[in-house]
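[agent] plan:
  1. take the single chain provided in the ticket
  2. run structure prediction with default settings
  3. attach structure tokens to the ticket
  4. add a short note for the reviewer (M.T.)
[agent] executing step 1
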Amino acid sequence: MTLQELMQRAGVWRAGELPPRATRPSGFPALDQTLPGGGWPRTGLTEILSSTFGIGALRLVLPELARLSQQGHWIILVNPPHIPYSPALLDEGVDLSRLLIVDLPTKVQSAETEILWAYEQALRFEDCAAALLWLDDAPSLHMRRLQLAAETGATWGVVFRPVRFSSQPSPAVLRLKLDACPVPSVPAGDLLPHKVDVTVLKARGASNGASCRVTM
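[agent] step 2 finished; step 3 output follows
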């Protein structure tokens, strides 16, 4: 009996062999063609790992956040590195009246524990459709708690982390790596579209390593 046959007989499946989760379009056709199911998972954790700070990771999820907020759902941001620029969010269609920012003081004792607790509560909040977290390192047990909270609350959780954590195991249903695209030389004053390369590190119903270039 082969390993594959043994795994199937025991009811064990690789992530890429499972059917994709229910999804929503991301707003970026190239990304939808790459993601299993054609878009963002409706629930569970999505982990976005960036090679460079300020690469545009938040911009990647803004179309979906705008759609959810316009439908009257709450969007909760926990521990953002900077307070989001309101005019830019409005330009993207985000309803600011449905946006809640949880900004914990940096001098709070056991700040990491407080941040993770606040995010878990956001994921379990009944009226929250999407909860975003900016996180550095975190114990695997805490990440599993967050994944469970996202499933229990039927919430789309998005966790932004540095790319150095890409080698660590993660319970997230989707993991993406973002890399900046080379910027060609252009005359002064000319503006180029912002582009990032997106690589799928982990996804249910897809093979790891699929990639695309997204223009934002």
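[agent] step 4 note for reviewer: The beta strands are 23-24, 40-41, 44-50, 74-78, 99-102, 128-134, 156-162, 174-180, 195-203, 211-215.
[agent] ticket updated
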